[in-house]
Write a structure and sequence with these properties.
7-stranded mixed sheet, 15 strands, homodimer, globular, 393 residues, 12 helices, alpha/beta, Aspartate Aminotransferase, domain 1, 4-stranded antiparallel sheet, Aspartate Aminotransferase, domain 2
Chain lengths: 393, 393
């Protein structure tokens, strides 16, 4: 019996990261693989208080079906947080709650992409987004980056010659996987390009609040005068990824489509979790929590980079991010990081080879390491093991 | 600026039920619209105990990312519950947790349907499923039913002549919207047909545990010898719909595809909720809870039917279900229930007109009423108001 699946299933593949996480599940392994928040910093006591309060005060509503767009007081609080990165003139009517920002990525594909359409994205880009879009049978056009973001001349050449570019997908702050951040000027230019060539921008911004130096720049959506930018946000990195709570901010016309898709996909996000997060934001100070996280993560980043500089050969180029969760490495062209990964696993240390972040080709000599979820002694030990693996190559 | 959405967005429409629920949100309105569980019966106290226990004992894991397939102990418990309806030879490896069974419907479309493919389904069928499948640009072939399920001769005629039928979608117990239940014999025949014509069955079974008389029959999947049946289940009707927890049970080959799609769609369901429901099942007796629910719902069903018989003209055909949440009405051909709906709203009572449950045509003289979420005095009052509206037509 040969089951006849849809054509899209020919291209949908398992996430390399999730597969690697499985390999790296042994407690002996020091894993710099997944972009996981530090579990010892989760607000467990606060969540207990919050759960009790929600069930005591609104238990019936917290356990019942609820409207698709999400709990109004939470959406209003999200609006205020977005105002702080320059996204003005929006209301709760511009916000839809989603099951993490991953669901916002999937919905973006579902709403905009017909088979054969193109997505323009950074080279390299986030693997989870590539996989989500791929299910809609699109092609990818990846644009090289410098230290300020996509190179605009390259982008313009692509937009000029491709009528079926449905959107430009970017992660402007501490990009996954490279850790790079777009300059303000380049953000403005990107919006200008989208207007000039009549396309949409999907701005995926899960990390901007985790900035370890300098000022948070305005979001790309802050420069959106024509309602062309869809902003995806999340509580995964600031509060908890297990709660699966993200949001989409878009113009009413566009958000209405996301809302229709949310209805058909899973009706709504968890009613109890919506209220728990809302109550958390009322009872506690998320900004103070973020300050605490930044203190810990900054130390881990600094230590990881320091250990790399001390132990790696000088040919390994280290990209130091201003925030977020990832350090990006570039090896000489002849090094294949998939081989290095296998050798590293033998030494009980894991990372993510760069290749899957390139939807077309390239990146065999790159890799991504997350510093967020490993304690300082494990960072020292793990980078030491990795240095030994590199030496053996 | 004209935004270029994907072609599927031309056919994706708002759910009539969700739109009606918005109209019926006023507290003066007695709504028999949505299939909502009775909120006064939710296990609020138990959920408080369960949340505390999960956060105390496994807080770090409950708030962290987790594997896509779901928490193993919960999947093992689901296996045991499915064994009781005759689904044998399965393990936790055959279960994937989803965001309600609505997500299982969406994924079924995503995995099996290319544009132009056909879904065979009951006439009428569940609106939420029709909307979910529609996003994959399929066509619908609806098969008439008698009191035992789909009429097999009609089904066979369709399967014989349509090579692009990717799956047959059925709700065998207390079907939404008609409340009808498939006989055991017809279940066997359906599996036989799927084998003979090499297709898949998607068995959507959210209500079977809410049976008010007689024995629970084996699931259709109980007769599945070739791994052709995908079973969708949920805790929405027995525990809480706000928690958004459903599951898919399928052969490993098929489930692997659902798993890939789950990864790209939203990574996983809420880690905390998975553990809360697992702990609920360990600390409390879900079967006792279901007995309690059945007692209340049976009374409400009986009362609603009694009031209908007393107050409605004899031309209105009443379908009395053996379980579930819905009573189905058939009016004489010349009655349009959308007109009746408008008149009923003026009298502050709401229901769902039947028309949207027919993906092709028909049903203008039918409607669905839910008896689960309204107290007995409201049922009496609401059916009285509806009888008055009918009289005026």
């Amino acid at each position: 019996m040969a089951i006849r699946f849809a054509q899209r299933m020919d291209v949908v593949k398992a996430s390399t990261i999730r597969e690697i996480l499985k390999l790296a599940a042994s407690p002996d392994i020091i894993s710099f693989g997944g972009g996981m928040p530090a579990p010892e910093l989760f607000p467990i006591q606060e969540m207990k208080e919050v759960s009790l309060k929600v069930l005591d005060e609104d238990g019936q509503k917290a356990l019942q079906y609820a409207p698709t767009d999400g709990f109004l007081p939470l959406r209003e609080k999200i609006v205020k947080r977005l105002n702080r990165v320059g996204i003005k003139g929006i209301s709760a009517g511009n916000i839809l709650l989603t099951s993490g920002s991953q669901q916002g990525l999937d919905f973006s594909g579902k709403i905009f992409l017909d088979p054969g359409d193109a997505v323009v994205l950074e080279k390299p880009s986030y693997l989870g987004a590539i996989n989500a879009f791929k299910a809609y049978e699109c092609k990818f056009i990846d644009i090289p980056m410098d230290d300020e973001g996509m190179i605009m001349e390259e982008l313009e050449a692509v937009l000029k010659n491709n009528e079926n570019v449905k959107f430009i997908y970017v992660i402007p702050d501490f990009q996954n996987p490279t850790g790079k951040t777009w300059s303000v000027e380049r953000r403005k230019q990107l919006v200008h390009m989208a207007c000039k060539y009549d396309t949409i921008i999907v701005e995926d911004n899960p990390y901007y609040e985790l900035r370890y130096e300098g000022e948070i720049p305005p979001a790309i959506k802050a420069f959106d005068t024509e309602g062309r930018v869809v902003f995806l946000g999340t509580f995964s990195k600031t509060l908890s990824p297990g709660l699966r709570m993200g949001w989409i901010c878009a113009s009413e016309e566009i958000l209405n489509k996301y809302n229709l898709i949310k209805q058909g996909s899973d009706l709504q996000v968890n009613s109890m979790t919506q209220r728990e997060i809302n109550t958390y934001l009322e009872m506690y100070n998320l900004d103070e929590r973020i300050e605490m996280l930044k203190g810990v993560y900054k130390k881990r980043r600094d230590l990881m980079v320091e250990e790399m500089k001390k132990n790696f050969p000088p040919e390994v180029k280290i990209y130091v991010p201003q925030g977020g969760l990832f350090v990006w490495l570039e090896f000489p062209e002849n090094v294949n990081t998939l081989d290095l990964f296998k050798k590293a696993l033998e030494k009980n240390v894991a990372f993510v080879p760069g290749d899957p972040f390139y939807p077309n080709e390239g990146g065999q000599n790159t890799c991504r390491l997350s510093f967020s979820s490993m304690t300082e002694d494990k960072i020292v030990e793990g980078i030491g093991r990795l240095a030994a693996a590199i030496k053996e190559m």
